Amino acid sequence: MSFKTDSDANQVDHRDDTVTGASTLLPTLGRRVREIRDRRGMTRKLVAREAGVSERHLAHLEGGEGNVSIMLLDNIARALDVSLADLLAPETEDTVERRLIRRFLERLPQHRLEEVVFRLMRDFGHDEAVRRKRIALIGLRGAGKSTLGGRLAREEGMPFIELDREIEKETGIPGREIFALYGQPGYRRIEKRTLERVIREHQRAVISIGGGVVSQPDTYELLLSNCLTIWLKAQPEEHMARVMAQGDLRPMAGNDEAMDDLKRILQAREPLYAKADTVLDTTGETVDQSFMKLRQLVMS
Question: Where does this protein have compositionally biased stretches of type Basic and acidic residues (predicted)?
Answer without folding.
Answer: 1-18
